[in-house]
Each structure stands twice: as C-alpha cells, then as structure tokens.
Amino acid sequence: MMKKYTLLLLILTFALSPMYAQTKWKETPKGSFNLVENQGGQTLGYSPMSGVKILTVNGLAFKDLNKNGKLDAFEDWRLPYDQRSKDLASKLSIEEIAGLMLYSSHQSIPARAGGYFAGTYNGKPFKTGETDPTELTDQQKEFLKKDHLRHVLVTTVQSPEIAAQWNNKLQAFCESVGFGIPANNSSDPRHGTRAKAEFDAAAGGEISMWPSPLGMAATFDPTLIEKFGKIAADEYRALGITTALSPQVDIATEPRWGRFNGTFGESPLLSAAMGQAYCDGFQSSVWGAKSVNAMVKHWPGGGSGEAGRDAHYANGKFAVYPGNNFDAHLIPFTQGAFKLKGQTKMASAVMPYYTISWNQDKKYHENVANNYNKYIITDLLRNKYGYDGVVCTDWNVTKLHTSMDSFLDGKSWGVENLSLGELHYKALMAGVDQYGGVNDMKPILEAYQLGVKEHGEAKIRARMEQSAVRLLRNIFRVGVFENPYLNPEETKAIVGKPEYMKAGYEAQLKSVVLLKNQAKALPVTSKKTVYVPKRFSPAGRNFLGVETPATTEYPVNIDIVQKYYNVTDNADEADFALVFIQNPTATIGYDKEDLKKGGNGYIPISLQYGDYTATDAREKSIAGGDPLENFTDRGYKNKSTKTANVTDAQLVTETKAKMKGKPVVVSVNASNPMVFAEIEKDASSILVSFGVQDQAILDIVSGKAEPSALLPMQMPADMKTVEKQAEDVPYDMTCHKDSEGNSYDFGFGMNWKGVINDARKTMYRK
C-alpha cells in the first residue's frame, strides 16, 4: 500500500512541476524562424540555427536566450520591463554594456559600393545580380559580435521585402551570440514625398508619403499627426524598425536656420501639441509589438543658432539667447513629448543638439556642447524635469574636430582639446547613455578606465549599468526580446498599402497654404490652357559633397499637369501660367573665399533672392571661439552674399511679362521663411507647400481640394527685420504685407472665400 501511495505522490509531483505542467503553447516553422504561440501569453520567435531553445515553465514557453538551461528573470515575459532590464544589465560585462551604448553609423541595405554608406560582403563591394542584398555586411557582423553593438541606424532599403529579410538575418545573428540581445533598429524620418510621383487611391507604394513636419504644422491639427504616427509606426515595425529618431520639436525661432523644415515651426505651444501627438502615435497607447520608441530632439532646443548658422558645422556651434527666452525652447519637451496622453507617458529617448547653449549653464558655467553639459542633461533634464529615458548624443559628437565647414566633421564643441576616451567620459558623466554614430567600443572602455581612476570600479560600473538598464528597457518595451522576426509577405502588404498612401496624400492637401488670390484667380476649374515655364537649377553640392549638375527642365510632372489642363510652351496661347519655384537657397553662412581675402570667413545667410549686403547686422557676434580660429568675433556686418536660385525670382517676373495681364499662379515649395517682396507683386495667386506631390498642388489649383492650412511661421518684410529679430524669440519680425493688404504672419492662410479666421489662428500664438 505504501509503495502505491509513494508512486502516486511521485506522479502528482511531476504533473504539478512547472517543467512538466500541461503544455499551453504550440510551435510553427516559418521558414528562417519558428513561431511559438503561448495560450494567453506572448508569441515568441526564434531561429533554430541560433542555438536558442524553448523552455517550458508552468506550461508556458520562454526563450532560453543565454542558453543556460534555466529561466532567468530577463527571459520571463511575465515580469515588468524594469525588473527584466535590471536583471540582464547586472549580468552583462563592461564590454557588453559598452556595446549597448553604441549607436551605429548609417547602414544602407544593401551597402553601397563606395562613399559614406559603403560596406563589403566577404571582402567585396556589393554588385547587383551577384551579391545577396539581404546579407549582413562584414562591418555589421564585426560590430555586432566584436563590439556588442545592438542599436542600428537604417537608411535606404532596396525594398520592404529585402529590409524584412535582412532584419531576420540580423536578429538571428544577434540571437546566436552572448545573451541573445536583439537589435533595436532605428530610422531618421523616411515618409517624405517624391514630388513627381502620381497618386492613385487604389495603388500602393514603397512607403506612405506625407508632408514635411513643417507641412504637418501648417495643418494646426495634432490629431492628424497622431494618425501619421500610428501609420508610420505600423510601417516601421513591418520594416523591423523599433526606434524613430524623431520628432524634431525645436522651436524654429531663427528664420535662417537650415533645419527649419524639420520642425513644427516657431510656436512653442504648436510644437508641444504636435510633438505630443507624434510620440503618442508612434509609441501607441501602451507598450508592445505595435510600439516604436520615439527619440525626441534636440534638447534643449537648437532653433536659435546665431545668425541662422547650424551646429552641424563648427561655424554654427553657438545657440544664442539675446531675448532671454531659453525656457520657451523647453516647452515642446516639458509640455509635449514628456506629457503624453497614452500610457507610455514620455518619449522613450531624447537627443541633445550639437549646439553650445551660450551662457545658459547656471551651475557649472561651462560653454560646452549640450551633449557634454552636465547642467543641461543632469540638472535640468534628469533632476528638474524627472526624465529617466535614454539620452543619446547626436551623430559624430564624440569624433575629433578638424574643419570649420564640413558636415561630416567631428562635433566636440567646447571640448575640442579632449581625447576620444575623454570625450566619451565627459558625456557619460554629464548624463549621456549612448553615443550616436559610434561603432567601436574602445573609446567607451577608455572612458570606463578613466572612471575607475576617478571614482573607483564600483561607482563607474553602477553608472554604466544605469545606462544599460535604460537602453534595455526600450528594447524590452517594443517586444523584440520575444519576437524580432518578420514575415516578408506581410511586410510587403503593410508598407505603402493603399489605405496609408491615401492618408498621406490627404494630409498633403491639408498642408498647402494659400497666401494670395487676387481677383479669385484660383481655382481654375475648367480644362483651360496653362503655361508652365521650365526652371533653371544651378549646379551645386549636397551635404555629403556630391556634385549635382545644372539643369533646365519642367519643375513638375508635366504628364500629371496634362490630366488637368491643356499645356502649352507659348504664353500667348495660355489662359493662365503656373510657376513652380523654391524659396531662396541660403548658404551655410561661411565662405573660405572670405578667409582668403583677409576676412573671418563669416557671411550673411539671406532669405531673399537678390544679392544681399548685411548693413543692419549686429556689430559683433554674441558668441565665438574655436581652436581652428584665432578670434572670437564671428560678425559679418556689411558683408554680401548671393542666392544660388536667384533665377526663381526672375522666372516669376519673366512669366508675368509674357502673360500680359493674364493670371500668374506661383507655387513655392518652402523649407524656410522667405522675403516675398521680390515676387509677390508679380503673382496673381501664391501657394506655399512644404514637401508635397505635384498632384496635390494641381488638386488645389483645379478646385478638387480647397486650401485650409495656415502659416506655422512668419514671412519677413525684408532682411532688415530678419537681422534685427532675436534668434531665440518667436513672432518678433515685421511681416510682409501684400497688394491685397494681407500680412503674412504666423497663423495666416486663405481658402476660396478669403482669409481664414478660425480658432486655430490664435490658440497656439503665445
């Protein structure tokens, strides 16, 4: 009897044991990976080739990522993200933590054969037809395994399906080494438009196309950008992207700034509302497999660069505050991205800008770049505003400075004398968690050794482990520890699907501003004859130094125009003209030719087409200083500059003369405020767009859609008001007044009835 009882007890013990409980999961092969579905729990994905096995605990399935045969806390998807993050961080070596703190340089899929995005495959460059574009490059394999890097910045992809297949190989590789930490892939904004592409409501595309952030701001509609965030997040996740290096919520109080187009304009409150909606859309209402981490940028605001110069360049390293308005630049963060309506609560990551926020360090009194400024990051961001997400430097911050005018130069502003290890250490102790554009862990290990010398091993280990917890938490939150794998067919169906293309196109229509409509020249509803003059584009160089040749061609898809109107090259035959131009193309505010002539190299940035001499500029610069310069005055008073596309203004004037009193409709694709005085008098109607398809302009011109957008920034009357305004203050310019008596001020816009006067006009102007 006792033997039977003992046997029964043994059977019951095994049956009730966690490892022998009734199985509540099923496994399905999916080609390169297996899918494990837990009943009432998380779905797991893993590669059979990675060495990972499935553990059964209480009937549920878990991935044994570190391959030790037992369930660790970080592998238990039932536990809170913080607990899992702390458990894994405590297990990592300093080398593995250093790897987490790396954020890769730009990775193109497939890698280009040469140039900035180059890579090799088994020692050879990519060759179409021979190289598999879904394979990892030699460089990627090295930084993933040797340097333990897990944050990968993805740029161009050959197709969505190839991106999905590459992601699966990347994740399988990561799963096969160390603790199996998955890659957290990221992207800069990738939903811009191809102007000449035709929209077909029934057709899909490579990815949905939306107006620029400035165009989104022109709608004055946060619900629209939250919708964009949800759609973009769905497309990102289908591409294997789990972090968005956006939104850019800097308030663009300096109209000459080269990054104006990436902002939501000059209003702190509009930028806050748009930033909040953007992050809520991307991160979703709760963390999970639909979420994309939002990395809001650029703390504490980079929109007040002196004289409009940008801090990608050494000549633009200083943000200045002549209006004593520093606190207003924090509003999009503190009242927007850090106060989300959804349960994710805050943007999960923050990127400081390159700039030195001149004389704003109230505690340590350092004029160093924000990435190195302990007051800016620890005292303000961390302590005052309670932010405990990831702080990631902008790209190339911790590289050495060698040039005054190179986009790819290192940007260690204010600390240019430090070594690579010292740069990483200073940023770490200022409160930074991660280094953008760094593939090599050696400088971080050097920083660790500097910390050991100054603080002891325990303290510096704790500091780096703190960053590891933050970084891991963002990877856990988006669910890729459970399943980082994609079905390429599902990717193909999601990215650029017709529903998403339609939503993006409708947003484009809502982003176009009608500034002028003399004698109600618009809309032109019947199929009349239109004259579209060809536009001259001068030769130039892009930001990477690649030359672009001069062209003279139609600035619009003429095949699309012909679906709306009869097209002629003879103005005498036309009923009206449609002129497509760009806003004045500014320089970076620095010219080596000026140096050769004995100057300091600094020249004006102009917002007008005609030649400009800065007679009203300030006598001396507010800020200055660089190891490559032997002076601190960056002033440019009485110097002159030319605008590359002066021919755009000439095109409007010439077309006006050719049309002999017939309507001239001008469509301006704008990236910055501009001086309209040169062209407004020659235009019957003016439309301003911010990165839309040609077809959207034609839908408005023809009356298929009615304009409803408002200016998210002021349009200056002249360059004198631009020179006299304070770089850090919004709404402080005298605005252009047109022939109809309308002032092109913040919040101005028209529809077919006339000037729009709805609640949007005043609600964000504070």
From TrEMBL:
GO biological process, one term: glucan catabolic process
InterPro entries: Cellulose_Degrad_GH3, GH, Glyco_hydro_3_C, Glyco_hydro_3_C_sf, Glyco_hydro_3_N, Glyco_hydro_3_N_sf
Record flagged with keyword Signal: yes
Keyword list, A-Z: Glycosidase, Hydrolase, Signal
Domain Glycoside hydrolase family 3 C-terminal residues, every copy: 512-751
Enzyme class: hydrolase
GO molecular function annotation: beta-glucosidase activity
Keyword Acyltransferase: no
Entry EC no(s): 3.2.1.21
Top-level taxonomic group: Bacteria
Name of the molecule in the record: beta-glucosidase
